[in-house]
Amino acid sequence: SSGINAGVREKMETSSVIDVSIFYKGVFGDCCSTVIVGEGDVTSRELLAVTRDSTLDSIAKCRPGLSFSEIGNTISEHASKASFSICKEFIGHGIGSYFHGLPEVYHYTNRHGPTMRPGMVFTIEPIIMEGSDVMQILADGWTAVSADSGRSAQFEHTIVITDNGSEILSPHR
Which is nearest to 126 in space by CA: 164, 84, 63? Predict the structure, then answer.
């Protein structure tokens, strides 16, 4: 079972982003996944795979002393190989007793520092797009869609930099 009731499933489009935030004992956590409703076509499956893999590969590189720019450079490499684009309007962020803060985590090629240090907690949450990288916000002030109506996918994890690498604090599939 998907964990999503049948009434909600019937209203979902061909894919949907499920974003979950939590505040527990004074600390925030943040994660999301994109799911395909039904079987999906080849492009949908590739878009999800590239987004998931680029997120996980960028996390695998995170360690003390690494520049934050390596996250975006890794994600960009995956996206460009598949001829997808990356949304530049939404970025990852520091998280902890606050929900959005420093460091800012860019998901596209950049030279943005600083370097990672043990104890830093932040999100990596690229939005990979099949067409234009331009987003627009709908009249509800919340819903973001691609300006060209192309599909997009997003995966997000909250991670902590450890003495030897990184650890995912928001494990999900």
Answer: 84
Q: Which of the pair, 63 or 23, is modelled with greater confidence?
A: 63
| Residue 173 confidence class, pLDDT cut points 50, 70, 90 | low
pLDDT at 7 over 60: no
Angle at 79 between CA 17 and CA 106, to 5 degrees: 75
Name the residue among 169, 156, 121 with its Cα closest to residue 17: 156
The dihedral of CA 101, 136, 139, 152: what is its sign?
A: negative
Q: Which residues pair with 25 in a beta bridge?
A: none
pLDDT digits (tens, 9 = 90+) for 29-44: 888 988 888 888 999 9
> How buried is residue 50: exposed, middle or buried, by Cβ count under 10 Å (0-12/13-18/19+)?
buried
Q: Are 133 and 144 in contact (CB under 8 A)?
A: no
CB-facing half-sphere around the CA of 79: CA atoms within 13 A: 28
CA dist 53 → 31, 79, 80, 82, 162 (Å): 15, 10, 13, 12, 21
Type and span of the H or E element at 47: helix 42-61
